[in-house]
Write a structure and sequence with these properties.
With 244 residues, the protein is of the alpha/beta class. The chain contains 9 helices and 10 strands.
Length: 244
Amino acid sequence: MLKIKDLALEAGEFRVEVAALEVAAGEYFVLLGPNGSGKTLLLSCLAGLVRAERGTALVAGQDVTHLEPRRRNIGYVPQDYGLFPHMDVARNITFALRVRGMGHAAALARLAPLIDLMNLRGLLGHWPLTLSGGERQKVSLARALAIRPAILLLDEPVSALDWPTRAEVLEQLRRVQRELAVTTLHVCHSLDEATAVADRAGVMISGRLAQTGRLEELVARPAGEEVARLLRPTPVARPGSGNA
């Protein structure tokens, strides 16, 4: 599980303050917010890439607030997927295990169930630059899950994908998350995206957590106009719909 208490951090003049947030073990939690609301900054702090000014973040009961990233047992998928272009898919996926001292062949054997779950066996010898956006996302996700993380952090995981691919990847994200029962924190700004995957959700406005709860509760009883505006359903253009 994830438990945040009185966490504060800043980047330049922008400040993020989260008084309290809990994500239960095995839960899929989506953090919604407009661009510039601090969602990515919060994820970067949890991953250990940005230092917290004060407060605590507990992951599976361990205080990770000031630990090095490699000691946090956190899987992180950044917006650009962060794949190593000089490594094929197999070596990207096994990277975290190899830096821990495991041989490549042994790491591939250990990760065989995950590779099959993600339908990546046919791509193991491919290079990242030859992959589609959806394939890169799957490889990045598999690499993050390779360490069997206590929590998985997803930063706008489908924002760069076209609509049909986005729907397919969201379906796979939810399926894999349920199969592995991994606690997940997924940030985005789309209500449709959140609806496809979330058990619960939160809304971040101007660096602060404005509201949390089940999505239907947030939509029915938003805590203020900014939250209501973000959660207002908007028409989604589908291929062949004729919508511009």
